Amino acid sequence: MLTRTTLTRLYSTSYEPSRAISLRLNWLLRHGASENQLLVRPDGYVRVDDVRSCWSFRNTPPEVVDEFLSHVARGNSKYFNIKQDYDIRTGAPSWWIRTIWGHTIPHVDVSVKRIHSAEELPLVVFPAGLDEGTHAEHHGIFPDDDGLICLRSLPPQQEHTFSYGPGAYHPVCIYLDVAKMLDAGIQLFRNSRGHVLTTGDHNNVIHPWFFAKVEHVRLRRERIWRRAWKTTKRRSADIEHDTS
């Protein structure tokens, strides 16, 4: 969190930002968050407290980092945004920072839309394979390697066809209670591809009590034999071996 002393520097105009800190922070927020165990929101924001205490700034005096963050908070940077927003980990507002463009972290996109009401997401589902879905049903949905949980947003009329209709291929479909998640402070974001992204609760998980229902689907598959060139080549080799 920005200290009172740091915030008073917002009115100072004498500070010249450190290029070294800017470059290091830019790399950290765009590419190196996972290496530094930083949790990145789908819109690219990271807790300022986490940035200040991360390994990349271990040799930088805290007051120097605070000075640079104050410079950003004054709106003097074209590379970073900094703001106060709700933090589910503390249950109170915290300072957050992000770089404006150039993320290589999967699913992070500064243009994602923040969801504020359940009416914006009438149907959200987590489709999974049998093992993953069964584990999630009892223990919750855990994030991917990038720290984000990826869900699917569907029109209400697709609820039945998504699980049981032609082309359905998910043995387990977990439907989420969006209203309950938002009431608990879980932040949801929707991208242009219809994916709903979240960091989950304070433990980075969506627990089973946020599930509206869980459907297990028995899938029937019909294997169609396809004579590929590799198959033909393998058979020819077998024949040659058998006749030698």
TrEMBL record:
It holds the Pfam family PTS_2-RNA. GO terms for biological process: tRNA splicing, via endonucleolytic cleavage and ligation. InterPro entries: Ptrans_KptA/Tpt1, RNA_2'-PTrans_N. It catalyses: 2'-phospho-[ligated tRNA] + NAD(+) = mature tRNA + ADP-alpha-D-ribose 1'',2''-cyclic phosphate + nicotinamide. One of its GO terms (molecular function) is tRNA 2'-phosphotransferase activity. Its EC number is 2.7.1.160. Signal peptide: none annotated. It comes from the Eukaryota. Catalyzes the last step of tRNA splicing, the transfer of the splice junction 2'-phosphate from ligated tRNA to NAD to produce ADP-ribose 1''-2'' cyclic phosphate. This is 2'-phosphotransferase. It comes from Mycena chlorophos. The lineage of its organism: Eukaryota, Fungi, Dikarya, Basidiomycota, Agaricomycotina.
